[in-house]
Design goal:
Helix content of chain B: 55-70%
Distance between the termini of chain A: 52 Å
Order of helices and strands of chain B: HHHHHEEEEHHHHHHHHHHHH
Radius of gyration of chain B: 67 Å
Radius of gyration of chain A: 18 Å
Oligomer: heterodimer
Largest interface: A-B, 66 and 74 residues
Structural class of chain A: alpha+beta
Largest sheet of chain A: 3 strands, antiparallel
Strand content of chain A: 25-35%
Shape of chain A: flat
Number of domains of chain B: 3
Number of helices of chain A: 2
Strand order of the largest sheet of chain A: 1-4-5
Number of strands of chain A: 6
Shape of chain B: rod-shaped
Strand order of the largest sheet of chain B: 3-2-1-4
Strand content of chain B: under 5%
Chain lengths: 123, 450
């Protein structure tokens, strides 16, 4: 049990360090403390939500929309008004709940994923 | 043998009568030899001649008594023999002058004045301790001359007719009779035995002998000893003695009782503090136990979700907002350096490490027209790009695995098992059995952790 807790702590630090590294690559001019603070805040919030979903009887799953994927209005909530193109980048995942209905697994979208479509950006 | 006591000591010879009158109320017992009283009782009106042996013996005895009990502040010794006072008293009223003249001449036939003429303070009742009979002395107011009026039983009150018969006996003042009788038993013995020695010993030797006799008699029981306990109290006595010895031994074992009391108080305070802390811990454990019970009941009964769906929606959107605002804040802080070139290769490599989604995203950002540099060069897309990478990292490392920190293979196997158990209630298809095998393999290979 102690080994498990210790490995969890190490995993937490590993994830935060990875996030800080990526932020440092994108925004090298920002102070390291700002990166770490933001990484910790986002990670803690995500971890809390993860624990709550694990304890819940219902199966919650976070789904991700890949780049250059077809737009599905059922899964994706558009940031802008353009709806006729593929997904350029997913800015935030969606949340789905899975239930057993008539012996079949049923998926219910709780929160749609946020994404930008290709035609919303002029390169 | 009988003595008579004079309550009003007077001295017509040596002291002024006024002083004697003033102190006459202090009754001083002066004993008169029985021989003189017998003579007075027998001859009645025939006083003894002054040269008779009985008269001399009586005077000698009076002097000895005054030597022993004389108090010049309260009493005076009169040498007047009792026969003088015990002469017959006339019943007819008489004045004081006649009385005084009769007393002084010792031959007057007129008696003293009646009792009604004497004040109460000048009348003293005296009672015999042996027979209880009483006499009454009266004292003349002008001359303080004392007169024995009668000695009869009972003592008449003032104003009653005189009873001239004198009864032999030892007389004491009524108020002091009991005290004198209680403490002067030896004196009685001495006085009973005295006449036989009166004429054989010298005066000084007699006085010393009498004084020694009284002093020895007044010794307060020199041979007194502690009473022996009764037989029926022997057991109780032994028990009490044992208790006392045990208490003494206990006091020897704990000589510093104050120190022990302090230590006891300290131990008591520590114990109370410990009990209070244990009570707090017990209360916390009780509350946790109740929470666990509620959770177990909720899980076991499967009556519904632990949290409402809105709870997850709210927290999920809150996480989205946190990422957007955090990225925006960081971008604003580095606005002055946005023109610097990006380490594109490093960034793409980092993105490609984020699982399957990361590989697809890195490929899209590196090969398509929506390149990393192009998206980063514009303000709105820059924020979306950074948010995209942050969200993808959280999905890959936090949300997608079955548990945070698990390896990808083990997490996939656990996810398969969970789905199979939840949906089908067991392992029913081959694919999920493979998932179980992969999980077991992860346990064997110790590759559970990422």
């Amino acid at each position: 049990m102690l080994r498990t807790l210790e490995s969890l702590e190490n995993s937490y630090h590993d994830i935060q360090d990875q996030l800080v590294t990526i932020l440092g690559q994108f925004l090298p001019a920002a102070p390291a403390d700002a990166h770490a603070s933001f990484a910790k805040k986002a990670f803690d919030q995500a971890l809390s939500l993860k624990k709550a979903m694990m304890e819940e009887q219902a199966l919650f799953r976070v789904y991700w929309i890949d780049c250059d994927a077809e737009f599905d209005d059922h899964l994706v909530e558009l940031v802008d008004e353009y709806t006729t193109s593929k997904v350029m980048i997913c800015t935030f995942p969606g949340l789905a709940r899975f239930d057993k209905s008539d012996g079949e697994e049923a998926e219910h979208i709780v929160v749609k994923a946020s994404a930008l479509l290709k035609n919303s950006v002029k390169v | 043998m009988a003595e008579v006591i004079r309550p009003f000591a007077s001295s017509a010879d040596t002291k002024p009568r006024a002083k004697s009158s003033r102190k006459g109320t202090d009754s001083q017992a002066v004993k008169i030899p029985a021989s003189g009283r017998q003579a007075a009782a027998n001859i009645k009106g025939e006083p003894l001649p002054k040269t008779s042996p009985k008269r001399l013996a009586h005077e000698y005895f009076l002097e000895m008594e005054s030597f022993n009990s004389f108090n010049d502040r309260t009493s005076e010794i009169s040498s007047t023999p009792p026969e003088y006072y015990m002469q017959e008293v006339s019943t007819e009223p008489n004045n004081r002058e006649r009385s005084q003249a009769g007393e002084r001449s010792q031959s007057s036939t007129h008696g003293p004045p009646p009792l009604t003429e004497y004040s109460a303070s000048n009348i003293q009742h005296i009672q015999c301790t042996r027979c209880g009979q009483g006499v009454q002395w009266v004292q003349c107011v002008p001359c303080s001359q004392q007169t024995l009026r009668y000695a009869v039983q009972p003592v008449p009150s003032v104003g009653q007719p005189l009873q001239p018969s004198a009864v032999p006996g030892t007389y004491y003042p009524v108020g002091e009779s009991q005290a004198l009788g209680a403490r002067d038993t030896a004196r009685h013995e001495w006085e009973r035995f005295f006449p036989s020695f009166m004429g054989t010993y010298p005066r000084e030797a007699f006085a010393i002998l009498q004084q020694a006799w009284f002093q020895m008699s007044s010794t307060d029981h020199p041979g007194r000893s502690e009473p022996v306990p009764r037989h029926e109290n022997d057991i109780n006595y032994s028990r009490a003695r044992d208790r006392k010895s045990r208490a003494r031994e206990n006091s020897r074992e704990f000589p510093n009782e104050v120190e022990y009391q302090k230590q006891f108080q300290e131990y008591r305070q520590e114990s109370e503090e410990r009990i209070r802390k244990l009570n707090d811990v017990a209360q916390k454990l009780k509350a946790e136990n109740e929470a666990f019970r509620a959770q177990i009941f909720g899980i076991g009964s499967r009556r519904g979700p632990l949290q409402e769906e809105s709870y997850y929606i709210r927290h999920f959107n809150s996480l989205n907002t946190t990422i957007d605002q955090g990225v925006l804040k960081l971008v604003r802080q580095t606005k002055h350096a946005l023109t610097e070139p990006l380490p594109v290769e490093e960034i793409l490599k980092s993105i490609s490490d984020l699982g399957d989604h990361g590989k697809k995203s890195a490929k899209f950002l590196g090969e398509s027209e929506y390149s990393l540099q192009a998206l980063y060069s514009q303000g709105p897309t820059r924020i979306a790009l950074i948010g995209h990478v942050v969200a993808m990292l959280l999905v890959h490392r936090v949300f997608e695995p079955y548990g945070v920190g698990m390896s990808e293979e083990f997490s996939k196997g656990m996810r398969c098992l969970e789905t199979d158990l939840t949906i089908n209630g067991g392992f029913r298809n081959q694919d999920q059995t493979d998932c179980r095998n992969s999980v077991l393999k992860c346990f064997d290979d110790s590759s559970i952790r990422r």
